[in-house]
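pls design
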């Protein structure tokens, strides 16, 4: 399992717009701004059965499509103010915990995946989050983050065991 330090280091190396790495209970006092939030679903004052301070990584992303290089819109949208949205990625496909939901509450709707991409008995969640963020930032095929998020989700098999191979192939050239 990746640590918070690993995620910060890799995100910077991959030129990802990381705002920070947080435990879910730290979001309450965190400023909302455009970028990527890597969130550990264990509170920062807890440890798991092995004494590790961490459990499962998810990604929350606040984004504005107008910031994309290939974004195109009609003139009416260009005249209006910039609209930001949010998405939530959990490789297990679970719903958002209350702390994350509260943090993202100003953004309606928040787009979430509900597909099991990662087997619950594996520990590559941080890598899946980094892959999602990388795809959204550097593999832009569409005009919007949401369209690219859907493309990212489509690249995974319905068999979580096969997804480990896909994940390794994804990072191999990077």
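designed seq:
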């Amino acid at each position: 399992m990746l640590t918070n330090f690993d995620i910060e280091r890799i995100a910077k190396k991959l030129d990802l717009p990381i705002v920070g790495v947080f435990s879910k209970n730290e979001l309450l006092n965190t400023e909302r701004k455009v970028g990527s939030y890597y969130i550990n679903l264990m509170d920062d004052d807890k440890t798991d059965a092995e004494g590790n301070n961490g459990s499962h990584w998810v990604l929350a992303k606040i984004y504005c499509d107008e910031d994309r290089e290939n974004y195109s819109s009609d003139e009416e949208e260009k005249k209006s103010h910039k609209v930001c949205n949010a998405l939530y990625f959990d490789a297990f496909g679970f719903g958002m915990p209350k702390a994350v939901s509260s943090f993202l509450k100003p953004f309606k709707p928040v787009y979430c995946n509900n597909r099991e991409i990662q087997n619950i008995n594996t520990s590559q969640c941080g890598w899946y989050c980094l892959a999602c963020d990388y795809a959204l930032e550097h593999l832009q095929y569409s005009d919007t983050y949401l369209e690219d998020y859907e493309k990212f989700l489509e690249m995974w098999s319905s068999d979580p065991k096969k997804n480990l191979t896909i994940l390794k192939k994804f990072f191999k050239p990077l």
